[in-house]
Amino acid sequence: xxxxxxxxxxxxxxxxxxxxxxxxxxxxxxxxxxxxxxxxxxxxxxxxxxxxxxxxxxxxxxxxxxxxxxxxxxxxxxxxxxxxxxxxxxxxxxxxxxxxxxx
Length: 103
Hints:
Helices cover 45% and strands 10% of the residues. It is built from five helices and two strands. The longest helix is centred in the middle third of the chain and has 15 residues, at 43-57. The chain has one domain. It has helices at residues 27-36, 43-57, 64-68, 75-81, 86-94, and strands at 2-6, 9-13. The chain is mainly α. A hairpin with a 2-residue loop joins β1 and β2 (9-13). Strands 1-2 form a two-stranded antiparallel sheet. The protein starts with a strand and ends in a 9-residue tail after the last helix.
């Protein structure tokens, strides 16, 4: 574990770059992490990220299916917003640990 300067703030991260303290997260940090992942954040991205954060903070399991059933975006849309590894990228941008469903 270490720290990384993101959006002008030293943030606690693990070896994979996921925040280890989700309370350090804010929208500016999300935008910077997204840029590192090659994603330009839109309101749709933020809606998905906020949904994921809410589920995580409530202790609920995060899956691609749950995001697809969120009413915000379908599964195909989720993959297009966060190409390659949608749940991994969305979780990282949301400032939460990598979900256990991700390898």
